[in-house]
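pinned: reference chain
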Amino acid sequence: MDCFAVAVGLCACHRQSWRSILKMAFLFGFFQGLMPVIGWLAGGSLRDMIASSDHWIAFALLAFIGGKMILQSFSHQNGKRIHNLKFTVLLSLAVATSIDALITGLSFGIINVNILKAAIIIFVITVLVTIAGAKLAEKTHFIPAHWAERIGGVVLILIGIKVVLDHLEMVRW
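pinned: its structure tokens
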């Protein structure tokens, strides 16, 4: 769902080419599928290494990109246009939205899940949900581009806050 929200946020403010949407969907799907595999392979040692900071890394990446989107929204107000997203931005978002999947991979090892099958299912669903979010966002013609970009930036920051709050809730238990 984080990938869906990110796709909506990014594509509501700038119309994307199919190539850009597919690149985003593939990267999001790849990292959402890869991270559980890494967690599954690494086992408990990975949990100890990243558990104390994974949520802060995800928050920092999402807040940075969201803040950048908000700031950029004030520099142009000339309507929606095709704007291909930079690979580095997509890569950062793909990593940020999938860090929590590392921990999921650890639990997959404990409950004896077929990790290859799980990774493929996660990949396919993420790709489809990302494409759906991107295409749904194109239908938001009633929102001016600069407001869509601001809203998208806020959504990214809120997802980052949610990651931190979810971690704090998990630690509390």
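why pinned: The chain has one domain: 2-172. Residues 2-172 form one domain.
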